[in-house]
């Protein structure tokens, strides 16, 4: 680092130099006489300005704002609130029922919609919650077992017979008897479909409903033969013009003439249904009843039933004049039925 020479440092060095010189001059005494001229020293007085030191005390005043405290008397007003309990007039209870069905599309769905709309118009005080159920056969047994069954449902006679011994239904005979505009003769009756009869079920059934009642008929269906006249005429088939003028053998010959597998045209559609398939075929072959009067056994082991059922099934697998089940959906297309 470069040394910085200050005025104080220079004076110190000069003093050290003078000391060293003085020490070197101290030795044995020797007198030497020499005249040295002495310069006259003149002291000149130089006027110096007088320095006056004045102490000035500075007082700083700081203004601090102080809030003014005002005491004000306020009159306290106390409001007393008195609550009064008022009992509202009782409201009419809302009647609400759950209705479960798998009639949700096609003609059946339209019929269901029509019925619900008409019921809402005639009985607006009763609210209906419609619960569509595709797999009704699986849903209902589970709901019955869990104790959450719907208030009303729509299904076949076979299910009624199956679930009735389990106590699944409520009897409505007394409620129906109180209806002023109810006439039993206005309704189609099928024993043990919604009533507990256990009577002689020989075909034809009684015309007037009777027995403990648990439901009502909802839709009537007509079982019979419907023919495609255009297809029959093109195939050279002369359709019967009156009852009892043809036999099963005639039917088989007509089917053969109208069937063309390459064009996916078949003589007959076989319905896998008791109402629209097996039962009419069995009745036409002489079967009196599909099950015994105690509803504990089907009568499908009777010769009349076996012969009718075999004729029905052979049209699909032996004669091949009826479409197999895997073709039904394709042939039905947007119409919902292969026919």
Automatic annotation (TrEMBL):
Residues 1-24 form the signal peptide. Keywords: Signal. SUPFAM superfamilies: Periplasmic binding protein-like II. It comes from the Bacteria. This is Extracellular solute-binding protein. The lineage of its organism: Bacteria, Bacillati, Candidatus Sericytochromatia, Candidatus Tanganyikabacteria.
